[in-house]
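DM between two lab members

TW: hey, do you still have the SIT4 phosphatase-associated family protein entry open?
JB: yeah, one sec
JB: this one, 382 aa:
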Amino acid sequence: MFWRMTGLSAASPVDTILDKENFTLEELLDEDEIIQECKALNNRLINFLRDKAQVEQLLRYIVEEVPEDSEKKRSFKFPFIACEIFTCEIEIILRTLVEDDELMGLLFSFVKPDHPHSTLLAGYFSKVVICLMLRKTAPLMNYVQAHPDIVIQLVDLIGITSIMEVLMRLIGADETIYSNFADTLQWLENTDVLEMIVDKFSSSDSPEVHANAAEILSAVTRCAPPALAAKISSPSFVGRLFHHALEESRPKSVLVHSLSVCISLLDPKRLASASYQAFRSNLSHGTLVTASPETVNGMLESLGECWAFDSANGHFLQKAKRPHELGNIGHITRTANKLIQLGNSNSRIQSHLQDNSEWVEWQTDVLVKRNEVENVYHWACG
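TW: and the structure you got?
JB:
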């Protein structure tokens, strides 16, 4: 109960359980008012739940699968209530967790390769980890830095959307978390997490993996620590992205989602968030609101290679008529037109485009004709 007046209200069902000489954690979790009592900061309840043994059992409900024939309480209610207790953000309970390596190890055992990863429990795991990111940022990050396999394991589970959300926040693509923890940027800079994510376009055939990888990378283009923002904009990274996008015999989702990241890189509104710009300014980094010439050059080189390949195998437009490649051509056309659009409003980018002879030739011989084909106003009926 949120408030009580002695003599005017009956004891809560939770207090009734706590009054018993012997009671179990399960009895409390089965009581409907337990979350309400946690939010009301019931001292007796919190002092019980803060104990390491109770925190450990709460974690086990969240990270351990149970047999299919288990009671519904054990399979559904207890994991849900355990997650809700952690996300009540009670300081003393969270401290018990983050200050104990064994408990943190139990929490992150969920992402180990030999562990089952049900969507239900993945959601609860993610809510607890994100809660720690927000309320216990420093100890959480210190633990992850000391256990680098966690990042690899999270990337391997990127196809699970709730895990993807953890990874997105972990690498800094969320301006609310790291504003006061600039020291984590150096650690992020020294990892190859972005390369691991982009390589999922090549190592996985799952459309869910491709979509979630693109969502993280696009988020990084919009809002990320300076080190990662610089890396994702580099010609080498752009080349890696295009390599996966144009790789032969890959699912269509690879091309669609990898080129969506390229388009995000060309978005002039990227990294324009006011609050995060303040953070970047405090770190003496300039405002970045448009694609850098280096990023554009990286794309031009990749598009040039793509055009050379097409020329070696027949006329570009003839190749585009093949049904299984129509989507590929459309995405490449969209990316190229985005480059031209940026060049029209940015003299540096315009200069880079005009100075690249392969681009000028490709634009004249291929892109102009392709745009004419796709211009619906030039289509004839009948």
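TW: got it. The first helix runs from residue 13 to 19. Residues 110 and 246 are 35 Å apart (CA to CA).
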